[in-house]
Specification:
There is one protein chain. The chain has about 475 residues and is an alpha/beta fold. About 35% of the residues lie in helices and about 25% in strands. The chain contains 18 helices and 22 strands. The strands form six sheets. Strands 7-6-16-17-18-15-19 form a seven-stranded mixed beta sheet. A five-stranded parallel beta sheet has the order 9-2-1-13-20, with helices on one face. Strand 21 and strand 22 form a beta hairpin. Helix 4 (about 110-120) crosses helix 6 (about 145-160). The protein starts with a strand and ends in a 7-residue tail after the last helix.
């Protein structure tokens, strides 16, 4: 008899698992999603006649082969193969991103180039031992990239994104979040832009014609077609373990109390939230661990502008401290769309604290903040501003201060020992991962389930070791 599995969350991880389980007949699947649509932070919505995402999202060529094959099958010609074309503001100059040798040679500030060269020469000299000091985000990156790149780009950018000093951040942040963590790796990335050095997929990304959320929407429809059920606006209240090991999920839908029984609960919601839902309640030490893990919030500020195109670039990056926003994307440039004519949308990303002053600002004030930032960056909006809309994400990025691992490991280990409970995905594993990583986790979870033998936790442990090697693609 097939097990009943309830999946919490209809983002890429939850939907990927639902699709895999349902299409292979491994389980009877029910997905509970608190919002009215699928996708979570990887979703899309319509604004002023244009589909926009929750920030800048791309599907990277590093995607697992099986996952990529399914996405191509689900989207067909709707999945576009696009060339990356962004830029970074560095010492008041714009440098192409991904980095290009010619652009670096012609536009790199001389003082920055001299600093990088000096850092490279210093790396050839013997270094004093630092074994007695705990590694941090700052020490890992400065040892690998040198002082100039760190202090001009990575460190100010990190302060803005995570709200911490680089020295306060865990070394795990550097290993999981920075793909070019050494001058050698960075050089290889730059050389990959040259003919003859370019690996397959270098400098490119995949993007659905109607917004990044089209990936989640396609998975949701395929899961339904395979027999899965998705309940929207389902707010979970508790997950209770019965004396016979069965699980009962209490939730509200459309204001009405409801419940579902399951043999297993697969959760992709924040691991901190999951712990608070459990009945009987976790030991006090586990709740303390959950309360010790925190997230960085994000305000997405959408400006509807009365012009066909703002710039030719898909994304702008702003590491400079005096500019509060971190990134600006233009959705029409991701999908190469020219519709609607005479109108484009800019999406600015503003990391912040949900208790900070930015969170309390009105849409109008936030729109002015973005306009001022762009003017100060030398790319002012000259066309008429038609509308400002915001979206607020209270749990955009997990924060990795030094020592966070002891809290996460304690909670994660305890949850892993709860019968019938599985947590995975970006939020479920408190991970800085891309969508293709989340989908790989979903497929891995499904691969561990056998309808007759049950869930293979030894195999899952092996997959968990693979997840730890994931590095975010920017």
């Amino acid at each position: 008899m097939k097990p009943d599995i309830v999946i919490l969350g209809a983002g890429p991880a939850g939907l990927g698992a639902a699709f895999q389980l349902a299409r292979h007949g491994q389980a009877t699947v029910t997905v509970l999603e608190r919002n009215a649509v699928v996708g979570g932070n990887a979703g899309s919505f319509e604004l002023a006649g244009l589909r926009v995402d929750y920030g800048s999202h791309r599907l990277h060529p590093a995607c697992d082969v099986e996952v990529m094959r399914d996405i191509r099958a689900l989207l067909g010609d709707e999945l576009l193969d696009r060339s990356r074309h962004g830029r970074i503001r560095l010492r008041s100059r714009w440098i192409h991103f991904p980095l290009k040798p010619v652009d670096l040679a012609l536009r790199l500030p001389p003082s920055f180039a001299t600093g990088v060269l000096a850092d490279s020469l210093r790396k050839l000299l013997p270094r004093a031992s630092t074994d007695s000091k705990a590694e941090t985000f700052a020490s890992i990156l400065e040892a690998g990239l040198g002082r100039t790149i760190c202090h001009d780009f990575y460190f100010p950018y990190a302060r803005k994104i995570w709200g911490l000093e680089p020295e306060q951040m865990s070394a795990t942040q550097a290993r999981r979040r920075v793909s070019a963590g050494s001058l050698g790796k960075m050089a290889r990335k730059i050389l990959s832009a040259l003919p003859g050095f370019k690996p397959p997929g270098s400098g490119r990304f995949f993007y659905p014609r109607h917004g990044f959320g089209q990936i989640s929407e396609a998975y949701a429809q395929a899961a339904r077609d395979s027999g899965a059920t998705i309940h929207f606006q389902a707010e979970v209240n508790s997950i209770e373990t019965g004396s016979n090991g069965s699980l009962t999920i209490a939730y509200h839908q459309d204001g009405e109390p409801r419940s579902a029984s399951a043999d297993a609960v697969w959760s992709t919601i924040p691991i901190t939230t999951l712990a608070r839902y459990l009945k009987p309640a976790p030991p006090a030490a586990m709740l303390t661990a959950a309360n010790s893990l925190d997230y960085r919030a994000m305000i997405l500020i959408y400006l509807v502008v009365d012009q066909d195109q703002f710039t030719e670039y898909d994304a702008h990056y702003f590491p400079e401290a005096h500019l509060p926003i971190t990134r600006l994307s233009e959705p029409k440039n991701y999908s190469a769309s020219r519709e609607p004519a005479g109108k484009t949308i800019l999406c600015a990303e503003l990391p912040c604290s949900p208790t900070g002053q930015e969170w309390k600002m009105s849409d109008e004030e936030l729109g002015e903040l973005v306009c001022d930032s762009l003017a100060n960056a030398g790319i002012p909006i000259r066309a008429r501003l038609l509308q400002v809309v915001t979206r607020r994400l209270p749990q955009a990025y997990p924060i990795y201060p030094q020592g966070y691992e002891q809290h996460f490991d304690l909670l994660d280990d305890w949850l892993n020992r709860q019968p019938g409970l599985l947590t995975f995905g970006r939020q479920g594993l408190f991970a800085h991962d891309n969508t293709h990583h989340a989908l790989f986790m979903a497929y891995a979870a499904a691969n561990c389930l056998d309808a007759t033998q049950g869930f293979d936790y030894n195999r899952w442990h092996e997959y968990r070791q693979i997840f730890k090697t994931h590095v975010v693609e920017d």
